[in-house]
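Thanks for the sequence, V.! I ran Putative membrane protein right away. Repeating your input here for the record:
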Amino acid sequence: MRNILRIFVGDLMKVKYNVIAWIMIMGLTVVPSLYAWFNIAASWDPYSNTGNLKVAVVNADRGYSGDLVPLHMNIGETVTAELRKNDRMDWVFVDKKTALDGVRSGTYYAAIVIPKRFSDDMMSFFTPHVKHSSILYYVNQKENAIAPKVTDSGASAVQREISRNFLSTILQVELDVMDGLERTVSRSSTKSMMQQLRKNLQKTEVGLDAAAGSVEAVGSLTGSLSDLLDVTAGFLKDSGKQVQKSWKAVRKAGSRGAGLASSLDTAVSGIGDMLTQMDQSYAAVDEEIGRALEEADTDLAAGENDLQAMSRDVGQITARYEAFLSDLKAVDRALPDRATASHRVIARMEGRIEASIAEQNALRQDLQDAASASAEARRSTAAWRTRLRGDVDSVRSTIGSMKTEYEKSWRREMKTLLRSMDRALNAADSTLGAFGKLAGTAAGLSSGTAGDLRSLHRLLASAGKELRSADAELKNLIREVRSVSASGSWKALSRIMDNDPRTIADFLSAPVDLQRISVYPVKNYGSAMAPFYTTLALWVGAVILVAIMKADMTEDRRIQFARLRPYQAYFGRLILFAIIAFLQATLVALGDLLFLEIQCIHPLLFLTACWITSLVYVIITYSLVLSFGDVGKAVCVILMVLQVAGSGGTFPVEMMPKAFRMTYPFLPFVHSMNAMRECVAGRYANDYWIYLGKLGLFVIPMLVIGLILRKPIIRLNRWMEHKLESTKVM
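Predicted structure:
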C-alpha cells in the first residue's frame, strides 16, 4: 500500500512545477465536457425549428360543382389557405415546374402537388365509380437523413387536414339541409301535414293490399288453367294417336270392303247349297238306317258298327251347324241397332238352326241307343226303324223349311246388311281421318296456350310478391310516421339543429382526439439525448487520457522502488488516471445540470452515475493500454465505435440488425445510459442501482487483464513497441 501511495505522490511531484503538464491535465478535463455540451446543445429541440424547412406546395385543383345540391368545393384552395396559417414548415406556394426543379436542386426539401381532379375524385364516392384521391409528394432524400422524415410528417399532416376539411364540408352541407328541414317542421301546419300524410299512406296501403290480392287470385286461376290445358293437351294427343290407329284399321277394312262383300255374298249363296247338301245327306242316312237294321237281323255286330258310324256322321253335321250358329250370333252382337230388320232375320235364322241342332242331337242319341240295344231287341227292328226314320224326317223337314225361308227372305236381308256395313266403313274412314287432324291441331293449341298461361302465372306471382313487399314497406313507413309523431322526435331534431352547423360538422369530422399522456415525461430532445452524449463524452475522455498519459512506469521510476510488485505499479499509476476521470465526470455533469439545464429529477444520482461511469471506463482503457500498449489504444477506439452504433443511444435496439441486438447487453454504454435516464426522467424501483451494478461487473475482467494476463505478454508488448519505434514514424 505504501508503494502505491509513493507512486501516486511521485507522479504529483513530477507535474507540480510543470506548467505544460497542468495545461494538458486541464485540457484532458475540459475537452470531454465540450464534446458532450455541444452535441446536447445542437440537438436541444430540433423539431421546434422545422419551420425553417422549405416545402413547395402546388395547387392545381380545379374544384367541384354539385348538380343535386348547390355545392361548390375546392379542397385544394382550402388546404393552401390552412397551410398559409401553418408555421410548422416554410410552405412555399409555386407552380409545378418550379417545385420539381427546386426539389432536384435542393432549394426545397420536398414538394406537395394537389392534382387537377382532386376535388372531383374526392366527391366520386357519391357515384358508382369511386376514385381514390392522391396527393403527389416529392422528397429529396439526398440532402439530409432526417429532413425527409420530418417532411414526411408534414405531408401526413396535410393528408389528415384534407380528410378533416372534406368531411367537415360535406357534413356542413348536409346539416344545412337538415336545418332547413327543421325550420319547415317547426311551422304550425306541420302537425296537420303529418296527419294528412299518414292518412294518404294508409289509403295507399289498402289499395296495395287489394291489388296484391287480386293479382294473386288471377295468378292462381291462370295456374289452374295451365294445368287443365296440360291435361287436355295430353288427352288430345293420346286420342289423336288412338284415332290414327283406328283410322288406319278402318282404311285397311275399307280397302278390303269389295273383297269382303264378294266373300260374304258367296257365303250367303253357300248357305243354300249347304242346306241342299244336308238334306241329301239325311236322305242317304235314311236309306243307311234301313240297310243297317236289316243287316243287324243277320249280323248283329256289323249292324251295330253301321249305326255307330252313322251316329258319328250326324255328330259332325251337328258340329257344323253349331259353328255356323256361333258365327251368326257374333254378327248379331256386332250390329249397332238390335231393332233393325237385319237383326230380326238373324234372330229367326238362329231359332231355326237351334231347332235343327236339337233334332239332330236327338237323332244321334237314337242311333247310339239303337246300336247298343240291337243285341237284345232283334225282334224290335221294325220299331227302331220307324223311330229313327221319324227322327230323320223331322230333321229333313226343318232343313227344308230353312231352305225355303232362305230363298224367300234370308238371302235378301243378308245382302242388305252387307251394303249397310260397307257404307258404315266409308263413313268411319272419313270421320276418323278428320277427327285425327282435329285432335292434333287441338293438342298443339292446348300446349301453346298452356305455355302462355304458365308464363303469365309466373309474371303474376312475381308481381304479387312485389306488391306484398311494397305493402309491407308501406306499413313500416306508416308505423315510423306514427312513432315519430307520437315520440316528439321533431323536437329533439330541433334542439340538435339549434347549434351551429359548422360546429357540428367540425365535431363529426374529427370526433376523436388523441390525448397523449407521457410516462416519465422529458421536456425536450436535448435532455432525452443527454445520457447518450454524456456517456460518450466520458468514454472519449478516458480514451484521450490513456492516449496522452503513460500508463506504464518508466524503468527509472521502477529502480527507485525495491521489490515493486505488479499490482502496486498498476494501482499506483491508476490513482492519477482516476482523479482526472473524476474531474472529467464532475465537469460534464455540472455543465449538463447548471449550464445546459437539462431536465434531471435526481441530480445527485446523476452526478454519482457520471462518477462511477467515468471510473469504470478509465479502468477499462487503462487496463487495455497497460497490457497491450498501442494495440490496446486501438481496441479502445473500436469499442467506442461499436458502442455508438449498437448501444441504442439514438434508436431503439429492437430496430437494429440482429448482430447489434446480440451484443447489446455486453456493452458498458448501455448500462451507463440507463442509469442516467433513471435520473433524468424518473426512477423505477431499483433499476438505477441494478444498472450501476451491471456496469461495475466490467471492472472484474479488466482487473484480470491488467494484473494477471499482463505479465505473460509483457515481452511481446515491448518487442512490438521496439519495432514500431524503430520505424521513426510510429
